[in-house]
Fold each of these.
Amino acid sequence: MSDKTEAELLKEQLFIKREHGSKCVDEPTLTKVDEFADSYKKFLDTAKTEREFVIHAIEQASSLGFTEYDSSKQYNAGDKVYINNRRKAVILAVIGKAPAEAGVRIAAAHIDSPRLDLKPNPLYEADEMAFLKTHYYGGIKKYQWMSIPLALHGVIFRKDGVSISINIGEDEGDPQFCIPDLLPHLATEQMKKPVSSAFTGEGLNVLIGSREFKSEKGAELVKLNVLKLLYDKYGIIEEDFLSAELELVPAGKAVDIGLDHSMIGAYGHDDRVCAYPALQAIAELAEAPEYTCISVLADKEEVGSMGNTGLQSAYLRDFIYDLAEAQGGSGSKALAKSACLSADVNAAYDPNFADVFEKRNAAYINHGICVTKYTGSRGKGGTSDASAEFMFRIRTLFDEDDILWQTGELGKVDAGGGGTVAQYVANLNVDVVDIGVPVLSMHAPFEIVSKIDLYMTYQGISSFFRAR
Ligand code: MN
Ligand code: MN
């Protein structure tokens, strides 16, 4: 005989249950959570830019039998292929037993993150200090990028055509870079300004040197010394900056956060915390799945998914068309029957900024993978809004596979908003819903996620790929 009241029993039957991961994730699963988090942290340290992510993703995939896709070839169930899109985006696919025309399963995430790009003419000297001019990429709060150690990553072409990979500031003993901020003693006027105007894009100038090239006379000797060091090490001259792609990112490694080691702090969780699970979920598909599975890891999401490496480009659509047509099928039929998890981060509820969240519909850290029916801002502007049918399908799948999941909106209705790549995949006539990891301090140089949520996102994408 239960000693519960009728009201208690009815509540159990009728009320929605929201559970903290600690209550429903068992010890063996927690061990897997920690192992997955460790491998993620290692990957993050080597893949801070989209280019680095592509290199390491293809390296791992190749070791597991993925080969470069050739649209003129016939592929069989279980074959694994990848497409390297201009070294900045990558598609990985495992061919299914069913023809592509029966629909494919797509996990889409992005591998670019907010950062400071160098301008084409970056280097200058001012009052015996050498600086680099930057142009920020993506949505940043500029003050967060002052007074922190920065590393320089990217590629620069020498006049002779040789491309040089740059990675300065990550290894032990490497120099790092910094944007000095104003001391509080002299910041009386600065502190009166709103944060949005106190820090300007043109003020994000990165200190790169302060010692002069030894000379009896001559101007710009600090700049000359910097250029001489670059020339000696890489053979590059100032003109080579014109065609370079160099990015300043926060220096340093991913670390555990909290005495309980429950969280990870790092640069660029948005969106590697979803791209990495999407990569691992496709990489581990050992046998042929029922439907062809595709992980597309895209560039340029932070600036609107424009350009040939962003998801507004035709490369994903073309790949699915090529797959279907090589089997004598139709690309448009394949797309119409396809389904996609648009894997991107969501804002995690933060009690220190409670007023911008709506507590009943916010995502919480440690509550699992967040499923977001719609994004956008104001009246759902700019969202693809997943259908009730597709939401139900994902809800059922995650429940059946014991995936810890939650729903979450990006803040209060009129507080702001944002979008993801979901709309661009949905525009191809594919069923899409947003899923992903809740993040604290999103778009800051140092973002925080929960290890349980990371693991559940990986499990969620895996179960989507394996579903019949
Ligand atoms: Mn994102
Ligand atoms: Mn973002």
Amino acid sequence: MLTALTGVFGDRADAVTVAGRTASYEELLGAAGAVAADLARVPVGAFAVTATASLETVAAVVGGLIAGVPCVPLPPDAGPSERDHILRDSGARLLEVDFARRAPAVTSASASAAASGSAFGSASASASVEDPALILYTSGTTGAPKGVVVSAAAITADLDALAAAWQWSAEDTLVHGLPLFHVHGLVLGVLGALRTGSRLVHTGRPTPEAYAAAAEAGGSLYFGVPTVWSRIAAAPQEAAALSRARLLVSGSAALPAPVFRDLERLTGHRPVERYGMTETLITVSGRAGGEVHPGAVGTPLAGIRTRIAAEPGAEIGELQLTGPTLFSGYLGRPEATAAAYTEDGWFRTGDIASVGEDGVHRIVGRASTDMIKSGGYRIGAGEIENALLDHPRVREAAVVGVPDADLGQRIVAFVVADGVTGAELTDFVAAHLSVHKRPREVRFIAAIPRNAMGKPQKRLLLEGRAG
Ligand code: MLC
Ligand code: AMP
């Protein structure tokens, strides 16, 4: 998978920069080799790393691929409940990485010869469903996050399809500042660079200033979630610096049409949108050099088939898909894995979409109000509700996502409680789960409206029809 580390593109002193620190491929391989040696010394089924935006996280993930041991990237801001759940559920051993510690035996020359396969070899030669590379924790509509097992084969298939769609090559310098514990920042944003041989500049945080500064340094390919792009579009000077780029790519949530147009006006680029999920990786995208339109996420990538499960006569319905980029299952949850597929074996995305006559896909919404996308993060309402109910003063809780100009959706918690403030409840969630899962607003009400089955009627809450 990690073609760049076999030396075919040569080495360069500035191959990988993360949050201001730079390493060559040789240095990265040395640090990753030390991680792989650690994993070989005490065999484990999976290992976890606190996935800060750092060279250590990159070395850990590469080390896991060399050793053939799946990596569980932990959100660095995860509170004790979320951290304990992930470590317990995955059985992963938490590993500390010291980037200065190198295994001299692993060099780019020996890597291609010695590597057992999945890290460096081609997908077909080595990786299989039994060969997990990453276990990514992500929210469902209810309960605690599930571990999504992603194979090396799925990752290589996806990266190669994306490289073709975006004309992504070793000539590029990839720039982004996204978190390294999700598909966008980690799979595309790190492993994508190490497969295509493009130089990587991770800016630490995805701020307009940092993206503009990287443009001065030769950035050509830019990744961002819509919140990042809308903040750049609101900073005309920084946006103008991106006119030197080759391609701007948006994903993880819908890019609002006004942001698309502002970016085009300020940078001269029409941003390419792509659509994906943790369970499927990226499956549908616009093409570099192709026609792109606001609100459209493009056409299926090579190897992906899609269909719309619509009621007779309707043009929109659930997007379902099959292809080589799909996950291997939810860790330890065969029922949940089975429930994610239709009887005839298509993955149910839970997203509502339409497909035009030209094959261009548009995502028009989600089937469930319990899945919230805020700042590009996927957040299950049930997980936040459970965290709120753990507070001794909270008797009832219902969480919804409401439209937000900056975040796409913002988390709003309706609670029945007394003797506690909204700020205290926000801090309580931020401390127990992750900071990005905190409600941005807490509204106190007398009772949660429920239907005859006792299920919260969230539409009434969203429409402001609850007292
Ligand atoms: C505020 N803070 C608090 C707090 N309130 N901390 C603790 N308790 C509280 N009550 C602090 C935070 O710690 C942080 O500090 C600061 O406030 C800002 O936090 P924020 O407001 O949450 O960040 P924000 O600027 O809103 O983040 C926007 C964002 C972020 C776009 C940078 O949402 C982001 O990185 N999104 C990317 C998500 C992503 O990668 N998704 C991909 C999923 S994969 P400090 O010190 O840290 O500043 C996927 C597949 C696909 O979807 O298709 O790609
Ligand atoms: P996650 O598992 O965090 O990757 O979240 C996946 C979800 O993000 C999908 O099911 C969609 O709801 C949403 N998503 C990703 N990309 C897009 C996009 N380009 N447009 C609209 N929604 C998107």
